[in-house]
Amino acid sequence: MIAIWVKVKVKPGLRQRFLDAIEVDALGSEGDEPGCARFNVLQDVGNENVYYFYEVYADDAALAAHRAAPHYAVWRAAADTLDGPIERIDCRTVFPADPKYWFPK
User: Fold this and answer.
1) Is there a contact between 5 and 52 (Cβ–Cβ < 8 Å)?
2) Domain for residue 103, yes or no?
């Protein structure tokens, strides 16, 4: 499985536009992509313009399908709302170890 931790900083005046776009992507990812186990969006408590995404995908093919999905295009179209580069950390899931936890269907 592939896990990704992403940090973005949003331009203050464009926060709602960013939130609208990332909501479409997050809900579409979990709802429409069988290979996406998790797509959470979190806000930093110390800076309301900093957000984190926690994403889990079955494999490279699932991540490629995510990037080809229409909801991903909505998120990418809102890239001008970001204040600086996207910070991405690639991870590996450890616990829970059972794949059935991530993909119970």
Assistant:
1) yes
2) no
